[in-house]
Write a structure and sequence with these properties.
The chain contains no helices and eleven strands. It is mainly β and about 120 residues long.
């Protein structure tokens, strides 16, 4: 059974930084496909970033150059470093996992952590 638990959300002013973590049990973060998603009120869920086998990464255009996705194999944790945060980054952030990036959809989801950016 895969269990994902996000942490690190909070409130920050525009231009600030936050570091989200997703602790994974039952799934090895150095293998498989892991992603960060976000959903703001009234908006569709958006994939923010993904990492394949702990190596290959891709990002939504809206966060490229500001966000970095990575894995900490020792702690079996997925990380999202978010810099230069803007009010439009305000959303609930979720981590998700699946065995292969070419498969849809993601099979496992965390409960989410709220990120609020004020101007």
């Amino acid at each position: 059974q895969v269990h994902l638990v996000e942490s690190g959300g909070g409130s920050v002013q525009a231009g600030g930084s936050l570091r989200l973590s997703c602790a994974a049990s039952g799934h090895t973060t150095s293998r498989g496909c892991l992603g960060w998603f976000r959903q703001a009120p009234g908006k569709e869920r958006e994939r923010v970033a993904a990492i394949d086998r702990g190596v290959s990464t891709n990002y939504a255009a809206s966060v490229k150059g500001r966000f970095t996705i990575s894995t900490d194999s020792a702690k079996n944790t997925l990380i999202l470093q978010m810099n230069s945060l803007q009010p439009e980054d305000t959303a609930m952030y979720y981590c998700a996992a699946k065995d292969f990036c070419y498969l849809n959809p993601y099979d496992y989801w965390g409960q989410g952590t709220q990120v609020t950016v004020s101007s």
